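Worked problem 6 (solution included).
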Amino acid sequence: MRSAILALVFALVANATANVLIRWGMKDLQLSLADPVQTARGILLNGRVMAGIVLFAANVLAYAFALSKLRLSVAYPVMTSVGLIIVMVLSFAMLGEKITGLQLVGTALILGGVVLVASQMG
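Solution. The predicted structure is:
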């Protein structure tokens, strides 16, 4: 059980970090669907985007392991909710995105829900 929880924690951190890295890598690219080859090249040659893709792959492996031991009805809400909080914090710290008061209230409500759901992990 402990290894499954550690795998879930790794998966959600990897997933959230992957999203932030891809957003960070794509932030300044000027891409166009009119030139799909150049667009693909710009994405694939971007180190942050590639690091994000590697983390997404690691996330899938860790999450699959976690699901082999944990109930989906508990693991999925924890994965998505805590991931949302991590993305919000990293977006603020790394990308300079603003966090509104309404987002903070929503995050507190989500965190309360995660505590209730996670208490059923066993």
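Discussion: The mean pLDDT is 91.
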